Amino acid sequence: MTLIKSISGIRGTIGGKVGDNLTPLDAVKFASAYGTFLKQNSNKEKLTVVIGRDARISGPMIHNLVVNTLIGLGINVIDLGLSTTPTVEIAVPLEKADGGIILTASHNPKQWNALKLLNEKGEFLNGDDGAVILEIAEAESFHFSDVDSLGEVTENDAYMDIHIDEVLNLPLVDAEIVAKRKFKVVVDGVNSSGGIIIPKLLEQMGVEVVELYCEPNGHFPHNPEPLKEHLGDICKLVIEEKADFGIVVDPDVDRLAFISNDGEMFGEEYTLVACADYVLSKTKGNTVSNMSSSRALKDITEKHGGKYKASAVGEVNVVTLMKETNAIIGGEGNGGIIYPESHYGRDSLVGVALFLTHLANLDITVAALRASYPQYFMSKNKIELTPQIDVDLILKSMTEKYKNENISIIDGVKIDFPTEWVHLRKSNTEPIIRIYTEAPSQNEADVLAERFVSEIKEIAGI
Predict the structure, then answer these.
(1) Residues 131 and 209 in one domain
(2) Annotated catalytic residue within 32, 106, 193, 293
(3) Looking at 83-134, which runs of residues are DSSP E strands?
(4) CATH assignment of the domain containing 396
(5) Is 141 annotated as catalytic?
(6) Segment 173-187, tens digit of pLDDT
């Protein structure tokens, strides 16, 4: 398996050859590069980095390697232990730290792990900084500290509770009205840290919790990406328990999906739509999502009198555009909620709390709430790349062919038709072209996708 190096960090499968997988040597190398980067960009005598991990099996091993590498560089570490991506993100500025590392491969299966890198604001690094860290790693230009200048470790296991308190204190979160509704909710924590923090949050909001796969042992009971094909167990349990709805998070708790009271998927794309609908109903403002996200967010935003903008794919791109447009909520169609009133990072806790408050205020079922939103359907396809396929030529040809349509070339090519759209882009992490379409019906979305797959293959000569 190829080791994937990107501006946001490094990820790969555990074991195997150095440089091909995420081996102990690779973990030390990239932790060294990150620490070196921080030291090169600071005049402070002593730096501090916050570290947390999800519950995957390789977590303790990678965690020990990374912590001790930073100590060797003379950097102090605040160790949160078992944690979540958004928890580490809020801890960095609260601790006045110089950066943060989350040890998680997010929604990837258990054989994967990764180092996600944060700046002093608790936000993902931008492209320029990420590129510098990769250069430092490649050159292996590290300088470690002498014995009298080693860093120190401070353990702090309180941050999950601090995170919950921060969410409950948000002005638009109303735990009292939620408690009055006496909701019953099933939680699938995919046997990671979400199995601890989400039930805790719900209980503090007066919600009855039915736990499913909430033991943080790292043995994921199903593919941890919260997609319909992986969630048969919770869909069934929501009906059996006569629950109001179900909650599913990925291993590091930055992606959030809901199951309606009828056992059907609420839709990952509609997590952000529902939360934005509530926030916009209380606070006028703008929204942002990436170009591969549902048009429903644009519809809801305009209904509330706001303006919607689409960014290139990637959380750092969404955050950058949110800041530029003063967006009050944004995120990605994969179930990622970014609410600046809390922090600039995808946060499932924020999403759960806003969603519950919204539902309690409306006093309707989750299925009824989903039915109240604009109905769009997506088709997500891909074409495997070969050395013979010229992606740039394909995208250029498509841009020329559809030049009379509403086109964006910020990230690949997105073509907006009156009632549907298609987004074509080369993946940042896999040798594929992604073809995403959306239309008023599943059949229309599928037909549109098939048409563009055929057109791409024709241009590519495959």
Answers:
(1) no
(2) 106
(3) 99-103, 112-118
(4) 3.30.310.50
(5) no
(6) 999 999 999 999 999
